[in-house]
Write a structure and sequence with these properties.
The chain has 419 residues and is α/β, with parallel strands linked by helices. The protein contains 16 helices and 16 strands. Helices cover 35% and strands 21% of the residues. Strands 7-6-5-4-3-2-1-8 form an 8-stranded parallel sheet. α6 runs parallel beside α7 and α7 packs parallel to α9. The chain is globular. Alpha-D-galactopyranose binds next to loops.
Length: 419
């Protein structure tokens, strides 16, 4: 009796403080300005690409008209440099009036009228990373302001908060203020990345109680090298990061750079597939107005998106590494599909020729009592039926490219055809 009373009190206090917005049951999908458009505020010189409401409205239009929204991309996210250089007379943040003449509320209305959601950016500390006013002393007021405007997602950065030790207090305070607004606002925290950078041990239990998604590692840049270095970080830390991911909580390896200047088509497929296996947010940072169809098709690939959006929300792991070949495997929702898996074979080789990769099926890390699998090669669009778990599965994988495989237990296929 006493024990249960104590437990209730503990649960009660946990419930009051922890983030309780019910969001991000699967990794969030959308578009985020930063990697591609940075802090370009010169709308006189570059009206098409400057950080302005026009840019976000145009991206929203593209999301709707070019099939992204139907594929699941729903957030349109503003990053740094949207604010006026000072707060207003009531200490409230407001958007630069020249670049955002409708204000954030007007932009939110537009985004919502398209059936999309709006994300915004602030920072813990007095300034954003680019030196604009941030939320340091005004967490509560800013949470209220964002809610009044109809914001649906908040990224809180923190590079100007020099004492990184304060973040484990400051971010949970913001969580409390976001809860108090009553508006479900998906909370994206940069806190663990800053603790990592400062050598402070990261309490991921606390992070997951307070944030829906969180950055773990350095900013992505427009290069394949950058993508690989991020993948390496997640491999190295997988034993810590896999257990904290799940519905409502995801590690964030940063934006998709598919369709930008650097990635080849093979590399773009690789980033898409790896982000899906990692159960990472799929936040594109690209120019949807000029993207070419081959990159768009990768971003819209339904089978890869299904792996990303699997409702178990499990983060995949690297299960094999041999020279330039890596295999990553993610278990998919066992409650609805009786043991599906997805794997990515990543070829980091640069030899110029596709590699013939042969792997004994059980080494993909797939577990099934019956021992036979139907294996679907997503990009080849080919099904290989009834493959024994002890047999080799062979596939050609292009250099700096991937094969994406989905494993269905063979017995299920038979079960489906039974009367
Ligand atoms: C930091 C973040 C980036 C971006 C910039 C904006 O570097 O990690 O994602 O938000 O700040 O200044």
């Amino acid at each position: 009796m006493w024990a249960s009373a104590v437990l209730l009190v503990l649960l009660g206090s946990f419930g009051a403080n922890a983030l309780d917005n019910g969001l991000a049951r699967t990794p969030p999908m959308g578009w985020l300005a930063w990697e591609r458009f940075r802090c370009n505020v010169n709308c006189t010189a570059d009206p098409k690409n400057c950080v302005s409401e026009k840019l976000f409205m145009e991206m929203a239009d593209r999301l709707v008209e070019d099939g992204y929204k139907d594929a699941g991309y729903e957030y349109v996210n503003i990053d740094d440099c949207w604010m006026a250089k000072q707060r207003d007379a009531n200490n409230k943040l407001y958007a630069d009036p020249e670049r955002f003449p409708s204000g954030i509320k007007g932009l939110a209305d537009y985004i919502h009228s398209k059936g999309l959601k709006l994300g915004i950016y602030t920072a813990y500390g007095n300034f954003t990373c680019q030196g604009y006013p941030a939320s340091g002393m005004h967490l509560e007021l800013d949470a209220q302001t964002f809610a009044e405007w109809g914001v649906d997602m908040l990224k809180m950065d923190g590079c100007k908060q020099m004492d990184r030790h304060t973040m484990k207090k400051g971010y949970p305070q913001m969580t409390k203020y976001l809860n108090a607004t009553g508006r479900p606002i998906l909370f994206s925290c940069s806190w663990p990345d800053y603790e990592r950078g400062a050598g402070i041990p990261i309490n991921y239990t606390l992070v997951a109680e307070n944030c829906n998604i969180w950055r773990n590692y350095v900013d992505i840049q427009d290069s394949w090298q950058s993508v690989l270095s991020i993948i390496d970080y997640y491999a190295k830390e997988q034993d810590t990061l896999v257990p904290v991911a799940g519905p409502g909580n995801f590690n964030d390896p940063d934006m998709l750079i598919i369709g930008d200047f650097s990635l080849s088509v093979e590399q773009a497929k690789a980033q898409m597939a790896m982000w899906a296996i990692l159960a990472a947010p799929l936040l594109m940072s690209n120019d949807l107005r000029t993207i070419t169809p081959e990159y768009r098709d990768i971003l819209l690939n339904k089978d890869v998106i299904a792996i990303s959006q699997d409702n178990a929300g499990i983060m995949g792991k690297r299960v094999l590494q041999n020279d330039t070949i890596e295999v990553w495997t993610k278990q998919l929702d066992i409650s609805t599909s009786f043991g599906d898996y997805a794997s990515v074979i990543l070829n980091r080789g640069v030899s110029g020729m596709p590699s013939n990769v042969s792997i004994v099926v059980r080494e993909f890390g797939v577990h099934d009592l019956m021992g036979f699998w139907d294996i679907y090669d997503v990009f080849q669009d080919k099904m290989h039926y009834y493959v024994n778990v002890d047999d080799f599965y062979s596939v050609m994988v292009n250099p700096s490219g991937v094969a994406v495989l989905r494993f269905y237990p063979t017995r299920l296929q038979f079960a489906k055809t039974e009367p």
